[in-house]
Amino acid sequence: MKKIAIIGSGNIGLSLAKGLVKADFAKAADITLTRRNIDHLQSFADAGFVVSNNNKDAVAKSNILILAVLPQQLNTVLDEIHPVVNPAKHLVISVISGVSCAAVREKLGADVEVIRVMPNTAIAIGQSMTCIASDNATVENITDVTKMFETVGSVVKINEDLMTSATALCACGIAFFLRAIRAASQGGVEIGFHADEALKMAVQTAKGAADLLLLHGTHPESEIDKVTSPKGCTIAGLNEMEHNGFSSSLIKGIKLSALQAGNLYTKAQ
């Protein structure tokens, strides 16, 4: 039986815990959630999860260790739990931005298997786009971790040197697409809709656009071609957006976020 300890039970950790139980990957009683103030975890305790503010004890009683603290908290936590981490027993999963597998092993021991995982906040509704990478984990453990995160969305295995890029495209990307939806809804207000109506229309239209690509397996341009006609209103709107830098600004934003993501852990030290 797998015993899971989630160290740093914020939004990502708690969403994962709920997803694992909902998908019958694990029982609530087999998941320990740690946080400095356990009062915030009372509802999870009521649901059968083990809650604790003792990281060492949680790690000692687990065989899967999920690190979900802030980058600036990581070194303190790793120093704290190092004495009870056993390479023969523990698999370490890190969901911390900008922290390499090697950096975790440097603190916990060279023989510890570490898998780096980058989900996004849509994990809360089981719709995360999660990327995973490792430089020393077994195929079996990578397969298990893939199944674990498939309980809360889609998973892609990538090379670790692309993890900061995945952070920008998938984790930060949630905010980028939300901002685009917000802008579309504001445009809707400009052309006559009430704010709540415009937001509902923009959200459903964005969802429909995404589902077209997912379900048809098509390229965005092929779906765009179906909407644009010669001298039509769609192409006029698209070209106006492009003249004002729509695509280029999004690309530049993603590139800058990737650069920042790569520096998070360095700045925290």
TrEMBL record:
**Key word tRNA-binding present:** no
- Matching SUPFAM superfamilies: 6-phosphogluconate dehydrogenase C-terminal domain-like, NAD(P)-binding Rossmann-fold domains
Q: Which UniProt keywords apply?
A: Amino-acid biosynthesis, Cytoplasm, NADP, Oxidoreductase, Proline biosynthesis
Please report the stretch or stretches of sequence annotated as the Pyrroline-5-carboxylate reductase dimerisation domain. Answer: 160-259
Reactions performed catalytically:
L-proline + NADP(+) = (S)-1-pyrroline-5-carboxylate + NADPH + 2 H(+); L-proline + NAD(+) = (S)-1-pyrroline-5-carboxylate + NADH + 2 H(+)
TM ranges: none
Which annotated residues bind NADPH? 55
Please state every residue range assigned to the domain named Pyrroline-5-carboxylate reductase catalytic N-terminal. 3-97
- Known HAMAP family for this protein? P5C_reductase (MF_01925)
Q: What is this protein called?
A: Pyrroline-5-carboxylate reductase
Tell me what organism the protein belongs to: Pedobacter yonginense
Q: Which gene encodes it?
A: proC
